[in-house]
Amino acid sequence: MNIFISWSKAKSKEYAIKTKELLEKLNPKIEAFVSEVDIYGGEDVQDKIINKIIESEILVLCFTKENKKAPWLLFEAGFARGLKKTVIPLLFDDDPNWHSWIDNPMNVVREVRFNSVDFVSNFFSCFNINNSATNRKKIDIYIQSVINVNEDFRLVDIQCEDLVETLIHNDAFIMENPSFREKSAFFLSGFESYDLLKIITESFLYTGKQLWIYGRKNMKLFGGSFKEFFLYLHEKAANEQLGMDGIDFRCLFLDPNSDEVRRAHLKQEIFKPELEATILRAKDEVGENIQLKKCFRSYTNRREEIIIRVDNSIIYSRPSFDAYGRPQLLTNTAFEVFGVKSNKGKECVNKFENVWVMAQEMF
Hints:
elongated
């Protein structure tokens, strides 16, 4: 049986090679073709690919989030479909919209999902391979090798992948695709914006467990646009015996009576009244809710990092200071996202905890 394995981009190529190795181990009668492995020096690449698709009975597509719209991948799929070949999309990432765009040749093909509980049985069924104990051991090794490849190519810590994915697909951020370095995602703009705060609160609502905000004025949070969020907090704090009922919400304000207020903004005459007004709005929002009052504290130290924790993700930025030690405006500036278990994440958690311990209850 001849099988053509199609891939596009580096991670997909590694999946294709691992899949070729597995299929040939499971059935010695299978000859699986992968262009990176099976095309040799001097050969016409395009001619060989076309001929191999013609010779094959099955075409396997190694889909990832990065390559789902790759032209060459879709050309090979469409060409095979035109020849009435069996086409098997092998999805290595969870992506419900992997074939949702117009004229995708995969719209009529049932996929095999690597992350599905039925993956092993579906894989054996697609290739008519005996579901024996020996073969299950072979596919277990394959599954682990795919997991290892995925980890090698992971751009951000697994704990914050969903948050980064949400930010990437939000039109409010100038940089559609962030740059990645050392498992952190770097965005060029959007920090302390309304859109970022909306994403953060929506991520936390009803399913989140931890939300920590190391703010100064927190004006946007108390500007009247997050009524659902505060209603949720009140519901969680309704029973005094339950505390906050399984969630950990903390919000830090700069103390308006601290010496740091004089260095906290370029225009102190504007900053302090705004800070005091926001604290009054926060007090009004909290009301007499004893549990919710405990979620707010004020600090007097100089804030040299801006830290927001959303469950297992850290949203982080550092202010720049002028010659007088006053921080520049941060709204819509750059920021990064990384996991709480990374070295930077642990440092941020410790920093926040230290400030929280030294801060005073506000209400």
